[in-house]
Write a structure and sequence with these properties.
The protein is built from three helices and eight strands. Helices cover about 20% and strands about 35% of the residues. By secondary structure, it is an alpha+beta fold. The chain is globular.
Length: about 140
């Protein structure tokens, strides 16, 4: 599975994979049906799902290396990310050390299909909303 395939899978469940998602290590930004933003990360021995208000997303512009405007545009590409001031509305974690006996960085080594299974399971534990096809 790759990110485009994951985007299709999530779309079939009424969810939208957002730019700023990565397959290695897994970090997903997903817009839920109610416009809430879910951020799922797999780091160390922890899988973490946090939800944020829709206005928590921001775009940052990466400056061009030289910035002179002669060789490159003065501004580089934009990237979608969570605002550094965003406060989570809810958080769910899965402690891989307790659940699976992980010792070091096994969460960060998860392949996208395995991480997606955990993402959907954690998503199903959030307070009931209109999460189409998630349960």
């Amino acid at each position: 599975m790759n990110l485009p395939a994951l985007a299709d899978l999530l779309a079939s469940r009424g969810l939208r994979l957002l730019p700023g998602s990565y397959a290695v290590p897994v970090e997903l930004l997903v817009q839920l049906p109610d416009a809430t933003i879910a951020r799922f990360t797999a780091r160390g021995t922890t899988l973490r799902l946090r939800t944020y208000a829709p206005d928590a997303l921001t775009a940052i512009t990466i400056p061009a290396e030289c910035g002179c405007g002669d060789h490159h545009p003065q501004t580089g590409p934009s990237r979608v990310t969570l605002s550094r001031y965003a406060v989570p509305l809810a958080e769910r974690t899965l402690d891989g050390e307790l659940e699976f006996g992980w010792r070091r960085n096994e969460a960060g080594l998860l392949r996208l299909p395995d991480a997606t299974t955990h993402f959907l399971a954690l998503l199903a534990t959030l307070p009931t909303r209109e999460l189409v096809g998630v349960a």
